[in-house]
Sequence to fold (825 residues):
Amino acid sequence: MSGPSDYQPSNPALQWIERRLPILGLMHSSFVVYPTPRNLNYWWTFGAILSFMLGMQILTGVILAMHYTPHADLAFKSVELIVRDVNYGWLLRNMHACGASMFFFAVYVHMLRGLYYGSYKEPREVLWILGVIIYLLMMATGFMGYVLPWGQMSFWGATVITNLFSAIPYFGESIVTLLWGGYSVGNPTLNRFFSLHYLLPFLIAGVVVLHVWALHVAGQNNPDGVEPKTEKDTVPFTPHATIKDMFGVSCFLLLYAWFIFYMPNYLGDADNYIPANPGVTPPHIVPEWYYLPFYAILRSIPNKLAGVIGMFSAIIILCFLPWLDAAKTRSSKYRPLAKQFFWIFVAVCILLGYLGAQPPEGIYVIAGRVLTVCYFAYFLIVLPLLSRIETPRPVPNSISESILAKGGKAVASVAIVLVAAGALFLGSLQDARANEGSDKPPGNKWSFAGPFGKFDRGALQRGLKVYKEVCASCHGLSYIAFRNLAEAGGPSYSVAQVAAFASDYKIKDGPNDAGDMFERPGRPADYFPSPFPNEQAARAANGGAAPPDLSLITKARSYGRGFPWFIFDFFTQYQEQGPDYVSAVLQGFEEKVPEGVTIPEGSYYNKFFPGHAIKMPKPLSDGQVTYDDGSPATVAQYAKDVTTFLMWTAEPHMEARKRLGFQVFVFLIIFAGLMYFTKKKVWADSH
Amino acid sequence: MNPDASTIAAGAPIEVDLSPVAEGQDIKVFWRGKPIYISHRTKKQIDEARAVNVASLPDPQSDEARVKSGHEQWLVVIGICTHLGCIPIAHEGNYDGFFCPCHGSQYDSSGRIRQGPAPANLPVPPYQFVSDTKIQIG
Fold:
């Protein structure tokens, strides 16, 4: 893409093609001989990382779409079936869901790098604006993708975001109806979001081609912000940039794999494991972390229309950046004031993200307003003003001169600051959940915790017994089939034992030839029958509160860990909020109601239940279930066993996930090491 | 991309029997996929709603204009917060009405916005009384 190529393939067949379509020459001039500034640092590898992530998202997405059902009644279940039954479906889903987060993480680094080194300045304005367009398309795609699993957060996120458009005067309501395809968010909405979620990534890929084209016309910016002048200032793209990008990508993959294999739900919301319910709004509606700063801006403006305008202009303003910042010096390396304001701006964005996850009350609202003003002031006041009053330090005459004078420090400290800030930002989601001031459930030692955790087989088998004899009278387990009990990583029953277990159940089948429904003994392929025919029956039989299905309960419940725990959790891989909560609720019943708490008629006091008034009577008491293996027949033991069992039902492939994770990590570390030493060798003469 | 024929057909009027709803209680029915709150208001709630100086409200509307005359005890509103579409919780908040858990908007016992970011009152759907204990919504 940088002018005609003189590339001539030696193979006659390739020559024949090349004369008719010079595509090899195009590749050769764009990605082999293309001159890239020799002083690029590792922040420049994020372009390659982003291309890789886009490819990854499209690849996993296309395969997921083969198994997904875009229907309001079936979408949630089809996602669960992908995770449970499709070969490596859990891996595909984790790669796609965590991939979205990593994609946004990389794009933010990429954008901030552009901001710091002035990559938007003449002659790269179009390149920068194309980047903003890609970012907008990514936001739309990410939002619609989050709707597809059709959990509670999907549904209510879709409701809140589509309602943003109702703020537009006169046409607002019609636009919203058009987005919904109905009178509220429903099946037509899900269908069109699925269609658009499949379409938009290819549009992104198209704009990325334009973005790369514009990049190769204007040439890459570099940390010193001076254009390459002589041949000595550049190195050929291959092998120099290629190998450096490969090393960058493999380091990024380490982070990505940490999420895929060890923390797949860290960035998600427990509420999204509850199927969408148009009648119940979750207590806190929180968007995905990458939208939080903009959500905070939306909420801090008390007028609805102004809030929506504020939120969108926070993004659109980026398009005008090349003209807002008129300073001649590109790189903040040589702009002492701009450098400081840049880091203040980064802090403002991170704090806005933190506030976006907090409930909109008290000090958070005021802080949100102050930071919103700071955000816009950076673009509208600070940058235009700095370009007039700041005296930049002298820039080097050429890139090679700056390399000779180079000290090379700061990078490590900057990276540490960024990682710590990122962790604070990512984890702020956890903070938003269930801050009702209820007692925190005590931590437990779970056999399945940690990177090498495995389910305790005995506990799984005992837990199944507790479920069958106690919980099953009110709670369903509808995503679990009897055959699952024989699968690897589960309670490890034999196929014959499972067949015998299944035949104890009566399963409704039919219609038969006479058109009647009939009952037959269960088979291994059948699912656990639910105790009530429908939710209304369950509600009516239980005083208005339907007992939830337990298949996913340990992933659908959580509690706020609070600052700074969520940061430690990222490193210790603590993922057991759900099991801790379930086990605590089972043991949290107390006869004596503390003073100041009133429990309505027909409810019971539970220390760990949010609001303390639970409709479920104390389910377990000592000696209720007889164990054959000599384990103590106590409530504590029952709670531990049944929670372990329910963790397995929520994620039957957890052992496979952690096992594969270890293998992937060993591979990636070796691969990254090889890339590093190859890179060192390639660059040996160029520094 | 507008609603298709079956979606429109499913949005036809519905009839609701009010006789089981005791004073001080409310029910939630779904019409066009939207929750409709039907509240049987107490004397206290009606008096509170009427005692307010209408001109002081963010979205001025009298309680009389929001209920059917002769059926003042019945409040029928679409239970969708006019801010960003969450479902407010009945019998919560400081005004004996509705409280939206998403962004903290509070509505009074007539469904009018009193506090918070929502710009307008809870809308009253089109409905009429078929008999004293039955309404038709739509």
In short: Residues 151 and 274 of chain A are 5 Å apart (CA to CA). The mean pLDDT of chain A is 90.
